[in-house]
Design a protein that fits this description.
single chain, 333 residues, alpha/beta, five-stranded parallel β-sheet, 33% helix, globular, DNA_photolyase_N, Rossmann-like_a/b/a_fold, Crypto/Photolyase_N_sf, Photolyase/cryptochrome alpha/beta domain-containing protein
Length: 333
């Protein structure tokens, strides 16, 4: 049997299998007679700079090798209880979706560069496996760009292929804008909008979701999470680990307490399925039809779309919303 040739896909804010350019390309290549890889290793890393990961320490370990994930000025936790739960649910939904296609997802904590280095070192000790390339999606932001530079440096040092994909979760693709230089962008949104109209046709079409069996399987063996951390095997345990180090009052003195049995007006559940359910609910309950009249309302589930949480993590894309609405307008749904 030939040695496994592994493609590592580092997933960050592209937590979906639908309308995902990397998964779409992997599926296409894998169905060719001679595909460049035999196994796919998707990895999601809870980034230690943005999410407090000390709750993942193994029993007996008391100190994380990373500084606490607090804001530099106020010293507040950068990721609180609600966001941590939403991210964990989104990652777990992605894991289940990939498993449904015959693949899977490895969850890690730390810095992306550290995790990748540990995985590559683990495969060096396994002479039967070869990592051929590492792919990830480009993201805007200082820390995200730093991650990309770290990953590129590590991969190039090992002599492997590194590919940084253009992010495609936005409404209008940057490659389709009628401007050569960023300085040509209008200062007023209305002027910008008129340059890209008609908006009905402006967004690119969504990419097909890979069918079951069209993605490479996970490698026969995967290097484990490096010490001093351990990864729980269930979603409740992951949420518990994320919540464990967070103070109940988020370090606020005399913080007001929520009344007993208080619930949010909008039950935010993470994951691509929850995001899709939200889109379809807005269409079927008439929320989209009267959106212009209700969008500035504050309380209630359907005054505004409340889709930003799913969009921010890439659980859904803006063009998915657009084409769902086009189908609604055309009477196809």
């Amino acid at each position: 049997m030939a040695s496994p040739r592994i493609l590592i896909y580092i997933m960050r804010r592209d937590l979906r299998i639908a309308d995902n350019p990397i998964l779409s390309e992997i599926s296409r290549l894998y169905q060719q007679t001679k595909h460049p890889f035999t196994h796919l290793l998707p990895i999601y890393v809870f980034p230690a700079d943005q999410v407090e990961v000390s709750g993942f320490l193994r029993p007996g370990e008391h100190r994380s090798p990373y500084p606490e994930a607090r804001s530099s000025v106020g010293g507040f936790w950068r990721c609180g209880h609600h966001r941590a739960k939403f991210v964990a649910e989104s990652v777990w939904c992605l894991k289940e979706d990939l498993e449904g296609l015959g693949s899977g997802l490895e969850i890690r904590v730390g810095r992306v560069g550290d995790v990748l280095k540990q995985v590559l070192e683990g495969y060096k000790e396994d002479s039967d496996a070869e990592v051929t390339c590492v792919w990830m999606t480009s993201e805007e932001g200082v820390e995200e760009r730093r991650e990309e530079r770290d990953v590129k440096r590590i991969v190039k040092r090992e002599g492997m292929e590194f590919r940084l994909w253009t992010d495609e979760k936005y409404f209008i693709d940057d490659r389709d804008l009628p401007f050569r230089n960023p300085s040509d962008l209008p200062d007023i949104f209305t002027s910008f909008r008129k340059t890209v109209e008609p908006l009905r046709e402006a967004p690119r079409r969504t990419l097909p979701t890979p069918a079951k069996g069209t993605l490479p399987p996970l490698p026969p063996s995967v290097p484990p999470q490096a010490a001093p951390f351990t990864i729980p095997s269930t979603l409740p345990e992951i949420i518990e680990a994320l919540h464990k180090p967070l103070d109940k009052d988020l370090d606020l003195e005399d913080a007001p307490k929520m009344p007993p049995n208080t619930t949010s007006v909008m039950p935010f559940d993470g994951g691509s399925q929850a995001g899709q359910d939200r889109i379809h609910a807005l269409i079927t309950n008439g929320g989209m039809s009267g959106y212009k009249d209700t969008r500035n309302g504050l309380l209630g589930t359907d005054f505004s779309t409340k889709l930003s949480a799913w969009l921010a993590l890439g659980c859904i894309t803006a063009r998915q919303i657009h084409w769902d609405l086009m189908d609604f307008e055309d009477g196809k749904t």
